[in-house]
Amino acid sequence: AELCARREKREPVQYIVGEWDFGGLVLTLRPPVLVPRPETEELVDMVLRKCPALLDAQEDGASILDVGSGSGAIGLSLLHALPRATCIAVDVSTDAVALSRENAARSGLT
Question: Which phi and psi (to 5°) does residue 89 adopt?
């Protein structure tokens, strides 16, 4: 009943469940950090398809900068797909930085 009441108040399902699949990872999600949109996952897929230089850089490791990282969804899913890459993720929100670190640890990408 509590879950239904939260959803009835239009709380995002991702916050109610507390986690969500994104780019082959299961990410923890909670307010005030925004929920990654489906278009964000499409963006990651497009980057991996359309940027062969990233895949070519796998030999030496690509460098990724994730500005406004939020939950870490973009940077972490790229690291998951490109295991030799490195990523610097920044956000002005301390809540977002903490959640991104938590998701990195949970995903084994620290």
Answer: -115, 130
